[in-house]
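Example 413, ligand pyridoxal-5'-phosphate.
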Amino acid sequence: MSNIRGLHCRECGREYPIAPTYFCEFCFGPLEVSYDYAAIARQLTRDRIISRPLTMWRYRELLPVASETVIEINTGFTPLVEAKNLARRLGLERLYLKNDCVNPTYSFKDRVVSVAVTKALEFGFDTIACASTGNLAMSVAAHAARAGKRAVVFIPSDLELGKIYGALVFNPLLVAIEGTYDDVNRLCSEIADSYPWAFVNINLRPYYAEGSKTLAFETAEQLGWQAPDQVVVPMASGSLFTKIWKGFNELAQIGLIPPRRPRMWGAQAAGCSPIATAYAQRTFTIRPVHPNTIAKSLAIGNPADGYYALKTMEESGGGAAAVPDEAIIEGIKLLAETEGIFAETAGGVTIAVLKHLVERGVLARDGTTVAYLTGNGLKTMEALDGQLAEPVRIRPTLAAFQAAFQARELVPA
Ligand SMILES: *Cc1c(COP(=O)(O)O)cnc(C)c1O
Ligand SMILES: [Zn+2]
């Protein structure tokens, strides 16, 4: 498709052809996809989008693929839920939750992987690989199965069982590394140099990252073709955060929404908050950390897009905050009890940071707020060990039930 111009360096602007490369040979800056927005504006109308299936691919002109057939598993167009109960509890005027817990492999990663695997096939790769904090492994394994390609996925060895089995069921080569995600990522960069594999978040990273924009596209469409006033987004490498911003800007640029842009608020766990800490210290220099948090999907100590996330906060008038693990669990429970949504620890981070920012008067109470729930709670059940009421165990008799029920009713909630 002629809408894709090529790649350009985010630092020095040098241009590169479309290829499985990700950094500038001159300044080592990261590469990003460039588009011909004037051409896209002529092709992509609201009517055109509305006429297409309810998946992330309804915005395909704004995604970096050339092929007609894409590798996809019905990802996207997830619910934008108006959260009246939670809004009331927090004192917000209007709150929506973008529920990516219900994507095909239960996280937002299906969006980035669908683009990256489609691109990997365009480039002629036979093996799809990734360095994962957990959710990416399952999504890559599923998409590779769908494409009939080999998957080799690398994870830190201490992940939750739901993420390990969730990936293994698709029969990839799953490599569990004794180390942190940052160790996994460093090793994968070396492997990517010596094996002809498509590492979706390393050598295909410029394409992969573009998939996250569809969260902004859908949000705007679901709000009646407008951007919200403020959003809260969980951050690991910071890529998702910067691409949601890019997505809203692109829609405004091609005239599909008015030019109002949201304040971007980033959420991290205190046990791994290199981006939020840099924000708090008013510096653009990220100091890598050694992660120690239950929010394993966000546990990137040396975030590749941290600097650009900080720039996005500055440009949008937003910011970032971090919350401790106890607050993350409270966030998971608050979301479940008010809105009936079971999100993973990253969702707990998002809700806890939302609450934190409202309580401190940092986040405006009026206007429209959107919080992004990026992964499903069934994948991180270990985080709730000992944190919930026990089931009531009884013998199968009415008398046993009556006794147990009475005893339970006497316990103050
Ligand atoms: C990967 C992931 C993120 C964000 O990742 P980035 O590296 O910042 O793009 C957020 N939530 C969940 C559940 C994830 O798996
Ligand atoms: Zn450069």
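Summary: The chain has 15 helices and 13 strands.
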